[in-house]
Amino acid sequence: MKPKIQPTVGMGATQQVGSDRYPYTVVSLDNSRYVIVQADKATLIEGSTISEHQVYEYTRDPSGTTRILSFRKNGRWVTMGQNMNSELWNIGNRNAYRDPSF
Asked: Per the structure, how many domains does the chain have?
């Protein structure tokens, strides 16, 4: 199985943890099955973290945390070393959101 979207350097990525989302950028490719992503800075420019309406502006963070993702046989991108059903990564878009109910 191949990824639906082929990653490229500079492409956005999003890590979903529960209902929260964290923006990343693809910074390196090993091949079509491995990518390195780096956390971006997300600045809230509209709404608030205590409301459902949140609009963020994203900037690259050269000091951001990096993660190695692998493409698994179930069609999902997963942090290297994690169970293939443990996380949700989306390659191809960059998104931030903080659930106001927590």
From this structure: 1
